[in-house]
């Protein structure tokens, strides 16, 4: 979303419920994917996403556009909500990736489903070998679709550092997957 569109959406959402619905519709898939990646329990992820949007709605007046882009503010709420979730459970770090993803074609070939599930298991294992920051940046980039600039603002690093982290993490994942005999088509 362009900065001008974000400012317009913010201005409307701050004063109008239909604009908040537009904001919700735009950010829901991104937030849901991010939370679902970070929390393995499907039901907990749904509850956390609801909590994130409740916090966004009730704290909207505290957002300051001059301090950070709206997306960074929204994802920081999601990130903090996930951190609180794990703290309440006494967990220090979280290594989760939903293992229940399904092939979404209408009539998947059984061989394709088996191959997809096998590659997914290898990917889950490879992702768990990454450092916490690398997993977070990968989640924000590929599960939430954020730009490097947005990730940099959210995580508190430079945009170029974000790119380096993504590049190195992807190279590391490729090396691990290839060592496991998983074919990478890129």
Explain this structure to me?
This protein has 186 residues and is mostly helical. It folds into two domains: 3-88, Rna Polymerase Sigma Factor, Chain: A; 110-179, Arc Repressor Mutant, subunit A. The protein has eight helices and no strands. α4 (70-88) packs across α7 (148-155).
Summary, kept brief:
It is built from 8 helices and no strands.
Q: What overall form do the CA principal axes indicate?
A: globular
**End-to-end distance:** 27 Å
Secondary-structure-based class equals: mainly alpha
What is the CATH fold-level name of the largest domain?
A: Rna Polymerase Sigma Factor, Chain: A
Overall number of strands: 0
Amount of helix: 55-70%
Strand content: under 5%
Mean pLDDT over the residues:
78
The quaternary state of the protein chains shown equals: single chain
Instruction: State the low-pLDDT regions, or none.
Output: 93-106
Q: Counting H and I runs of at least 4 residues, what is the number of helices?
A: 8
Number of domains: 2
Instruction: Specify Rg, calculated over alpha carbons.
Output: 18 Å
Query: Helix and strand string, N-terminal first?
Result: HHHHHHHH
Main beta sheet: strand number and arrangement?
none
CATH superfamily of the largest domain, by name, is RNA polymerase sigma factor, region 2, helix turn helix motif
Q: What is the CATH level 1 assignment of the largest domain?
A: Mainly Alpha
What CATH architecture of the largest domain do you see? Orthogonal Bundle
């Amino acid at each position: 979303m362009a900065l001008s569109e974000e400012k317009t959406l913010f201005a409307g959402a701050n004063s109008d419920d239909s604009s908040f619905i537009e904001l919700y519709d735009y950010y829901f898939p991104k937030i849901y994917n991010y939370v679902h990646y970070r929390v393995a329990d499907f039901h907990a992820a749904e509850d956390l996403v609801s909590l994130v949007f409740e916090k966004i709605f009730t704290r909207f007046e505290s957002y300051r556009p001059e301090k950070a882009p709206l997306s960074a503010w929204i994802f920081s709420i999601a990130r903090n909500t996930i951190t609180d979730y794990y703290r309440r459970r006494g967990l220090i770090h979280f290594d989760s990736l939903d293992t229940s993803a399904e092939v979404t074609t209408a009539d998947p070939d059984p061989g394709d489903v088996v191959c997809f599930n096998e590659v997914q298991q290898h990917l889950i294992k490879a992702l768990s070998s990454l450092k916490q920051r690398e997993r977070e940046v990968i989640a924000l980039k590929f599960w939430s679709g954020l730009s490097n600039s947005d990730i940099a603002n959210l995580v508190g690093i430079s945009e170029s550092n974000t790119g380096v982290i993504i590049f190195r993490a992807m190279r590391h994942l490729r090396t691990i997957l290839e060592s496991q005999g998983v074919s990478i088509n890129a």
